[in-house]
Amino acid sequence: MPNEILKSDLLAPAAASPVPLHAQLRERLRERILDGSYAVHAQLPPESELGALFGVSRITVRQALGDLHKEGLIFKVPGKGTFVAKPKAFQQLSQLEGFAQAMARLGHSIRNVVTSHTAVAADAAVAQQLQVATGTQVAEIRRIRCLNGDPLSVEVTYLPLHIGERLRGADLAQRDIFLILENDYGIALGHADLRIDAIPADAALATALNVAEGSAILRIERLTHGIGADGQAIPLDFEYLYFRGDAFQYRLRLHKQ
């Protein structure tokens, strides 16, 4: 029972701490959710019971739960209560690697559905990123990436045409383009520049990702550079990545110098 778990595992927050009580409670609950002490879809006790267990007011409990709800760690079902949400998949931004490679290391399975692989005229934005003239023919690869069987992201990749043509014979349903470029073609990758924002899902994204139109989508623009024979960075792979906001997050650790 969730109530029994809370009584045995959690202690009342220290009132003397300079950290606000709602923040202490939020962190205790977050720890138990992230370490698996609370199973996915387990129901939390009502606010009144949580307040009694921790010796805090319902307002404090409501603040803590509100923070966890904003983080996507819990969800509420009207008339039924508060439940532990399914953990989001995540990828660290500390190193440049393919998505499937990162997910496999965390025990997830990835399947790619290639919806198109064509040659297109580069529009102004793509041309600027790949440093070619507008209208130059480039390869465009569109994929839906499924995590553990569920659609997670839509990815639109642009590459120089000669590389895109070589990729037609590659297993893009199972392998990362990054790994193919490095391991099969011997192209060294250097660094990537990212821009991240959020957008509402339009009809096409909503259908592809099986979410409601208008749902929050994490959008990433990523330009990956290869390393030329002279050691200089060369624009190689420009992508628009659209992730379900309810199922994925990027993580990054920052150090103060």
Automatic annotation (TrEMBL):
<feature type="domain" description="HTH gntR-type">
    <location>
        <begin position="19"/>
        <end position="87"/>
    </location>
</feature>
<keyword id="KW-0238">DNA-binding</keyword>
<dbReference type="GO" id="GO:0003700">
    <property type="term" value="F:DNA-binding transcription factor activity"/>
</dbReference>
<dbReference type="InterPro" id="IPR036388">
    <property type="entry name" value="WH-like_DNA-bd_sf"/>
</dbReference>
<dbReference type="InterPro" id="IPR050679">
    <property type="entry name" value="Bact_HTH_transcr_reg"/>
</dbReference>
<keyword id="KW-0804">Transcription</keyword>
<dbReference type="GO" id="GO:0003677">
    <property type="term" value="F:DNA binding"/>
</dbReference>
<dbReference type="InterPro" id="IPR036390">
    <property type="entry name" value="WH_DNA-bd_sf"/>
</dbReference>
<dbReference type="InterPro" id="IPR028978">
    <property type="entry name" value="Chorismate_lyase_/UTRA_dom_sf"/>
</dbReference>
<dbReference type="InterPro" id="IPR000524">
    <property type="entry name" value="Tscrpt_reg_HTH_GntR"/>
</dbReference>
<dbReference type="Pfam" id="PF00392">
    <property type="entry name" value="GntR"/>
</dbReference>
<keyword id="KW-0805">Transcription regulation</keyword>
<dbReference type="InterPro" id="IPR011663">
    <property type="entry name" value="UTRA"/>
</dbReference>
<dbReference type="Pfam" id="PF07702">
    <property type="entry name" value="UTRA"/>
</dbReference>
<dbReference type="GO" id="GO:0045892">
    <property type="term" value="P:negative regulation of DNA-templated transcription"/>
</dbReference>
<protein>
    <submittedName>
        <fullName>UTRA domain-containing protein</fullName>
    </submittedName>
</protein>
